[in-house]
Amino acid sequence: MEILLALGLGLGLSAASGFRVFVPLLGLSLAGFAGWVTLPPGAEWLGTWPACLALGAATLLEVGGYYIPWLDHLLDSLATPLAAIAGCLLALVALQDFPPVIRWLLAVIAGGGASSLVQLGTVSLRGLSTGTTGGLANPLVATLEAGASLSLTLLAFLVPVVALLLTLALVAGLSWLLLRALRSRRQRLAASP
Predict the structure, then answer these.
(1) In sequence order, what are the residues at sequence separation of 6 or more whose Cβ sits closer than 8 angstroms to the Cβ of residue 41?
(2) pLDDT reported for residue 70
(3) Is residue 184 packed enough to be buried (19+ CB in 10 Å), middle (13-18) or exposed (0-12)?
(4) Got the DSSP string for the chain?
(5) What pLDDT shows up at residue 190?
(6) Less CB within 10 Å around the terminal CB: N or C of the chain?
(7) For range 182-193, the mean pLDDT
């Protein structure tokens, strides 16, 4: 059961970082500071006042920045690699009791993969929103993404098994959409002269 709880926490936080990079990092920092989670050696800095304050400021700037029309696209280009890094870090911290090789493999493949896939989905959704509404719906998209990040972060701490199931469903759905889009693009390219 502890394995499922650790996976739920790690993958739930990783997927949440695909919606907003700093929300789950702030959540982990606050949880570490409050003593709700034990941070592994080398990551104790996450549970300090300076880390909480810095991650709080970064969270406010990131969430607020997505409401500024030109800045949201710039943030997407910065958030894409940062989400992968954050997903790996969050999974590494949560999976601290796993053997090192398994821990790193899960962190990079599952944690980094989940956060990257969710980030790719948010970038695509924002592009679709911009293309169809001229950016008028982007604040709504930004609100939904921030809410999804916060909700998944809270679920990962409070009900990790539900967060794991939700993350698996989210990753499966996004993978299916990505494969479908790639297949459609390949068919269009094959059909064009």
Answers:
(1) none
(2) 78
(3) exposed
(4) -HHHHHHHHHHHHHHHHHH-SHHHHHHHHHHHHHTSSPPPTT-GGGGSHHHHHHHHHHHHHHHHHTTSHHHHHHHHHHHHHHHHHHHHHHHHHHTTTS-HHHHHHIIIIIIHHHHHHHHHHHHHHHHHHHHHHTTTTHHHHHHHHHHHHHHHHHHHHH-HHHHHHHHHHHHHHHHHHHHHHHHHHHHHHHH--
(5) 83
(6) C
(7) 83
CA torsion angle for 84, 157, 48, 22 (degrees, to 10)?
30
Q: How far apart are CA 43 and CA 20, in angstroms?
A: 21
In the prediction, which pLDDT does 130 show? 86
Nearest to 136 by CA among 148, 124, 128: 128
Q: For position 89, what pLDDT does the model report?
A: 95
Gap between the Cα atoms of 128 and 125, Å rounded: 5
Distance CA 101, CA 91 (A): 13
Quick one: which of 27, 14, 13, 22 has its CA closest to 117?
A: 14
**86 contact partners, CB below 8 Å, separation of at least 6:** 14, 17, 21, 22, 24, 25, 115
Write down the domain spans for the chain: 2-191
pTM score above 0.90: yes
Whether residue 186 is predicted with pLDDT greater than 90 in this model: the reply is no
**For position 57, what pLDDT does the model report?**
97
Task: Compute the mean pLDDT over every residue in the chain, rounded to the nearest whole number.
Answer: 92
